[in-house]
From TrEMBL:
Protein name per UniProt: Type II toxin-antitoxin system HicB family antitoxin
Domain HicB-like antitoxin of toxin-antitoxin system: 5-60
Organism phylogeny: Bacteria, Bacillati, Cyanobacteriota, Cyanophyceae, Nostocales
InterPro entries in alphabetical order: HicB-like (IPR031807), TA_system_antitoxin (IPR051404), TTHA1013/TTHA0281-like (IPR035069)
Gene3D superfamilies: 3.30.160.250
Pfam families: HicB_lk_antitox
Amino acid sequence: MKRQVIIYPGEDGYWVAECPSLPACISQGKTKKGAIGNIKKATELYIEVLKEEGRPIPEDNLETVLVDV
């Protein structure tokens, strides 16, 4: 299963990664690679808990656009 994640530099020098389709599923790492590895584990655990509790797994329907500001 694939999930879209957003990754960006945090204020503390770490990289932040979050999975918007899974509310509150956020992680971080010292490097981009570390943050991606951590969010992968976090999403796997999140989905595992949803399955164990018999709850639906949200669709991954993220769409991004760039806007002029």
